[in-house]
């Protein structure tokens, strides 16, 4: 027995053929007992602790490859591949029988990643994720050594991630930091900054690139968000319906929906965000999704090389900005 070691880490050492995520699930399901009692994965083993293990194998259900989905590769070496993910496609499936995701495409072009990662049955090689309607840089590991290295970079907050976003209303501060814990709203996929159980620290920096303010009659083709859209319950700000702010956001942590939740919590949800946007929020003409794009990623690779990757704003979002810029009462920018 190895004392002063977390239970999940002990199992990872004892069963190297299983992923840590799988072993954690065994602990949480009660199939691993310490001194006859269920414990959390974070439990620290003590001298003379007796660990009982009854690992239950799951039936292997593999994702199917889908070569019909084209990948736009922006960087590749023997350890990783970085792609420019389009909006409208999920990073990975929720269930193994789904076929129209980035993960299915990866299996078609990189079949060796089928054994890579914590959950290769659902997320082969995928180190982080982007929401379905978020576009931009997505990083994938080609082997388990690279996966563990990249995962460590993300968990230690050594990765620089920058996003371009358009928010509703005119943000008062030119730059700032949003430091609010994020947790899951019970029974839904939504996240919240409300102080409930299971909160995780979340930090997002932002800076303003451009303000847009147009006469209401000039925002032609704009539409209001559906009434069922529910805002993040936080600071509520009444702002001009015809104002928007183009920003760069840099999340220091990687919580699900973090940027979307944080911006909504300060009264400036993403333009086009149907999940976190305010009721009756004006959406710019031509915008068919939430305006969020992963434009830059800087990371240290397993070979020690530092790479900085970039993705240009896709055409659908560029056209939205161009339209707002043509009607803008404030100083214009070159797009």
Automatic annotation (TrEMBL):
Q: Name one GO biological process term.
A: enzyme-directed rRNA pseudouridine synthesis
The Gene Ontology terms for molecular function here are: RNA binding; rRNA pseudouridine synthase activity
Q: Identify the keywords attached in UniProt to this record, alphabetized.
A: Isomerase, RNA-binding
Question: Record's PROSITE patterns?
Answer: PSI_RLU, S4
Q: Which Pfam families match?
A: PseudoU_synth_2, S4
CDD domains tied to this protein: PseudoU_synth_RluA_like, S4
The answer to whether keyword Isomerase applies is yes
Q: Please state every residue range assigned to the domain named RNA-binding S4.
A: 5-68
PANTHER family xrefs: MITOCHONDRIAL RNA PSEUDOURIDINE SYNTHASE, RIBOSOMAL LARGE SUBUNIT PSEUDOURIDINE SYNTHASE D
Q: Family membership, please give it.
A: Belongs to the pseudouridine synthase RluA family.
User: What is this protein's record name?
Assistant: RluA family pseudouridine synthase
Organism of derivation: Candidatus Portnoybacteria bacterium CG_4_8_14_3_um_filter_44_10
